Every structure is written in structure tokens, then in C-alpha cells.
Amino acid sequence: MPDAIIEGIRERVAAAIRVNQSVGIQVPENRHEGLLEGIYHSMVSNERDIWTFVTVSKSFDYMAKTFKETDQYTNIKFIDCVSRAAGISTMHKNCSYIESPVMLEKLILEILTNFKGVKQDADKYVVIDSLSALMIYNDPGIIREFIALLMNRSRSENIHVISILVEEEMDSNKLIQLNDKIIILRDSFID
Amino acid sequence: MPIRKEVCSTGIEELDLKMSGGIPLGSTVLITGCSGSGKTTLCMQYLFHGAKKGERGVFFTITEPLFKLTKNLEGFAFYDKKLIESGMVNIIDLRIISERLGLEAEKYTVEDAGALIDILKDIADELDVKRLVMDSITALCYRLQTREMIRDFIFKLGTSLAVMNCTTLLTSEVPPQTFKFSQYEIEEFISDGIIFLGDLERKGDLIRTLQVIKMRGTSHSRSKFALNISSQRGIELIPLLKSTEFESLLKR
């Protein structure tokens, strides 16, 4: 169960993403897993919302073990950017795999494809976990360009973007500034 | 009011958008790229898309056997076996035609090449095709023995295609990582358009790219796009993230 802080951040994210196209969440490593748990709870609690969860920091196998029943929800699709590059060849029906986390254009295409054919009135969300993990594989310049392209396409398709940044994994926090709203999760309180 | 030219939609939505709706009708377009760049898939998507709209097409292959070609298409959403069975998409192995004409498989004379062009034209006329693909012009020219013969053949082919009532894609193979449009450097002169399929190395991974170099008779984007071949959806395009290209150039 999420603790009080995570419960708080879940509510903050849910409220922020309703009014903003994109929300960036900066989180310390020791709160990262709890934050994911909170977001996952939001994803499964309203099956009318359509979600795409992009996993870069961990493989989908790990996510499936942690959150369980990931294949039960038809409103959630996963995109795994690290398994293939790590030599993991498992396949899951609600997860698509990108060969390498440097194939950023392919990642955007997969995200957009996941939302094709979705009902007009459905709320659409994409979660990037995390921008800092993408920075491990890519140069900062290309990540900035990736975010800008993703934001522009998402705006035109009315998709809300939630991007996570793990404090300890990043050199600068400039990337998160590209979001409409920023939430900073400290070790013990929310900014 | 500007005169709107009739265009031939490729079946790749983003590519059509870059060319103001598609390839101008009756054009001959060179699809150039290295092995694995997506030339054959692009051409097949173009043919099946046309067939679904009622435009008959023909695919002349000289590089791959028919069974292999159709097998590779099976996973794609654009592929429909019924369109082949009904004759809306015709896939013809040029090597079999050559054999029937009594031509030596590996070497063509000027007369052989001329006879082959006449046969291609007859087939296209008889089937009343609106879309024609030749895969590949490089492999065909490889069977001609001198540069002069190749040049004559290409010009004769260009003249024949120009009077045919169809929109043609000619594939051209070039070595990887080169910005060259053809093997013999004359194929581009008989073409109204050139679509270049390349690849770009990013941190050791190859990213496929597409760029419309020239397309007579329509305004078009000359930007480079990232190309993805989805096993279901076929060819998809998205703007290429430019930082990569800059880094790649620095390395060179």
C-alpha cells in the first residue's frame, strides 16, 4: 500500500495532469518505487482512462512481478525500452518492445500507435519512467529534442504526458522544465 | 486558383503529406537505398494500397523468388492475398520471363535488354496497370556487360516508361552509409523523383531514414525522417531527431 506521502503525490499528480498537458515529477531514488506504485494505482482505478507506460528504468518483467495482474487491464499498455537491449527476449501481450533506448523516434511512433482508435472522449495519458534513465543511453541534446517532439505531438493528439526524473540519475534538472507543471517529491515532503 | 495536379497516394500517410498528397500521376520515381533499408516493403505497400483503391499493379522482381517475396509480406496489415489471386497485384519474376525468351540468365546483349523492355511494356499494357514497380534496376543492369549498354538500356527504359499510362517505382541499390542515388549514376536522370532511404548510426544502433530528394510536379519536404518498418503496420515516418545527425557528422 502506498504510504501517506505517496498517497499525497498520487492525488497531486492526478489533480495536476487534469489541468496540464504535461507534468514532470522529480523524485529521489528511495521514493521512486513508491511513486510508481502510486501512479499504477491511478492507472488501474479508472478503466475509462487510456494509459501507456514507457519503462526505461526497469524491464517490463520486473514491472509485471512488482505490480502483478498487469495483463488484466485493457486500458493499460506498456512499452519496454530496455529488455531487448539487455538481451531479454520474453514477450507479453500488452507490452511492445523497442530494440534499444536510443531509438527515440520509434518510441514516439509506438506511443502514438497505442492511442490510435481510442474513443474521442477518453482521457489519454503517457508515463515516461524515466527521462533520467533515457539520459543513461542518450546525449542530453537529443533527449531535449525528443521531449519537445513528444510534447508537440501529444498536444496535437490531446495526450497528457507524465515524465519522471530520478534526482540521483541526472546531471541537470533542465529537462523537467519543458513540462507545463513540475512536482518535486522530496524525501519527506512534497514541494 | 492554383491548378491541382492529380497524384498517386503511396499508402504511407506521412509520406503523402510530405509530397502534397502523393506522387504526381505518371511519374517515374527512383527508390534508392542500401540492403535492408525498406525499398521492397515501401514498393509493396504502394502496390497493395493502389489495388485496394481499384488500381491494378505489377511488381517485376529480379532479386527475390516469388514465394520468398510473398512470405515476407504475410505479417503486414496492408497485405491481402486475395488481391494477388484476383490479379489486382501481379508479381512477376523477370528471370522466368528471361528464360522463356531464351535469354541467357547472367548476361544480356543490347537486343536482349531491348526485348525485355518490350515485354515489360506489353505486360503493363495488357494488364492495364496503373502502378508499376521494378525491383531492382541495379540487378537488371548488372546483367549488362558494359557501361554504354547500361546507359542505353536505362535511357530506353526511361523512354518506354514515359509513354506508359502508369506511375512507376524503380528500386536502386547503393552501398550502405553513402549519399549516392544509384550504382551507375545515370538512373536518376530518367527519374522524375528520388526517394532516398538511408541509415544513421546512433550509439551503435542503425536508425532507418527517408528523404524526398526530388519530386517533379509537386512541392515536397526535403527534411529527413526516421523510418520504421512495423511488422504489422508497414512503413511509418516521424521527424528525425536532428541532434543525432550532427553527432554523426562530427564523428565522420
Could you explain the architecture of this structure?
The complex is a heterodimer of chains A (191) and B (252). Chain A is of the alpha/beta class. Chain A has a single domain, classed as Rossmann fold. Chain A has 6 helices and 7 strands, in the order H-E-H-E-H-E-E-H-E-H-H-E-E. Chain A is globular and about 40 Å long. Chain A starts with a helix and ends in a 7-residue tail after the last strand. The model of chain A has no long low-confidence stretch (mean pLDDT 86). Chain B has a single domain, classed as Rossmann fold. In chain B, helix 6 (110-127) runs parallel beside helix 8 (147-163). Chain B contains 9 helices and 11 strands. In chain B, the strands form 2 sheets. In chain B, strands 5-4-6-7-3-8-9-10-11 form a 9-stranded mixed sheet, sandwiched between helices. A two-stranded antiparallel sheet of chain B has the order 1-2. Chain B is α/β, with parallel strands linked by helices and 252 residues long. The model of chain B has no long low-confidence stretch (mean pLDDT 89). The longest helix of chain B is centred in the middle third of the chain and has 18 residues, at 110-127. The chains are: A alpha/beta (191), B alpha/beta (252).
